[in-house]
Design goal:
- The protein is α/β, with parallel strands linked by helices and about 475 residues long.
- It has three domains: about 170 residues, 3-Layer(aba) Sandwich (Rossmann fold), CATH 3.40.50.720; about 250 residues, Orthogonal Bundle (N-(1-d-carboxylethyl)-l-norvaline Dehydrogenase, domain 2), CATH 1.10.1040.10; about 30 residues, 6-Phosphogluconate Dehydrogenase, domain 3 (Single alpha-helices involved in coiled-coils or other helix-helix interfaces, Up-down Bundle), CATH 1.20.5.
- About 55% of the residues lie in helices and about 10% in strands.
- The chain contains 19 helices and nine strands.
- Strands 3-2-1-4-5-6-7 form a seven-stranded mixed beta sheet, with helices on both faces. It has a two-stranded antiparallel sheet with strand order 8-9.
- Strand 2, helix 2 and strand 3 form a beta-alpha-beta unit.
- Helix 8 packs across helix 11, helix 9 packs antiparallel against helix 10 and helix 11 packs across helix 12.
- It is globular and about 80 Å long.
Amino acid sequence: MIQLFDFGLVGLGVMGRNFLLNVADHHFSAIGLDTDAQKVADLKDEGHSDIIEGTLDKVAFIKKLARPRKIMLLVPAGEPVDHIIADLVPLLDSGDLIIDGGNSHFEDTNRRFTSLKSKDIHFIGTGVSGGSEGARKGPSIMPGGDPKAYEIIKPIFEAIAAKVNNEPCVDFMGKGSAGNYVKMIHNGIEYALMQLIGESYHIMKLGLQQDNEGLKQTYHDWNQGVLQSFLVEITSQIFDKKEDLTSGDLVDQILDKAKQKGTGKWTSQNAMDLGVAIPTIDAAVSMRQISGMKDIRMKASDKYTERSGEFVHEVNVEEVRDALYFAFIMSYAQGMAQLSRASKEYQYDLNLEHIAKIWRGGCIIRARFLEDIRLAYKNDSSLESLLLSPEIIEKVNSVVGATRKVIQYTVAKGIPTLALSNALNYFDAFKSAELPLNLIQAQRDLFGSHTYERKDKPGIFHSDWN
């Protein structure tokens, strides 16, 4: 008699293999499919169990899955996903479930959801965060699609997800492409937090003259307080890694050109479409692009030799910490604002408290502050902006002064802090009762008859400016 497996996974790279091992650890039988014989062999070597198996044969893979079949794809986004779906669908039966666990664009997920629904195949676009270690030990999981289809996979996802206070870091996000959309925003926030940490490093290295040993201790200490987060924690660890090829620390030998896979860019593009301001996330994407201009930057550094710092006040490590915390808050606030707008635009019906809840563990942007976000939306589910929560207002007020001081310092010193500066400018614009956009409306009406509104009476107006 053929053994039937509870769960199947296509794509046995490190992420996929670890995910399957996690499933098996929680007593669900699992089978993996890949075209690479070595990856199948690696799974079998690590599995050491009769409830986990790997195969190169897609027909055997399908036949060995219990119905309704639960098949997850962990492959690169785009054409590979469509190719695998097209390959598998003829072998599936009505009611089977395909789960896309990659960083697919949410519009692709909508297309696949509609196409498979017409074939009576369930489809769930699922964000998975935590990297290869999270896949093995417990990721944060963000599924979206058909709520009835989610019930098919819910017991497995709840078992393998990270836990915070014994609560699994997984929840049904909403209809259609909600899961992939939430993961996209997660990654946009991730871009911002990483850039902000990088800028804090630059301030302390160039401005405060901290060496790597001091930086390691600083980030370690910060991780014990309000900045406690996965990204701050691993930043401290980075300064502990020695160079294998030469002497010294590895971080000093890494080229300052950051790559990207597109999710940050998608977040910025979609925010423009929705009319949501996320300048800190935008700045993080732009800085990765600027970092790629290494040759041009090297030439420019020799040609622009202005003297800086002649009239600069000093700052200390605690003020840099407060500025980073302030900018972290702005980054999360911008991401939550985009989720709120998208929920209405795409009819996702997102629950922002639940999203903050499942981001507290397993994922890359997990941080102590997410509990504050969860409580803010629990106390007021109709909150127009995270920055209008009384508790968040108190936190921002406590660190905004230090942020202004740090920005003044970096401007005087010529230390680039595009994300940090944008976080402060976003905040200043957000809290301004008056902005100079009345002048822009006047300009638009003068050169293009685009009309304007008035402060003193309702209606739409146009003036003859000549």
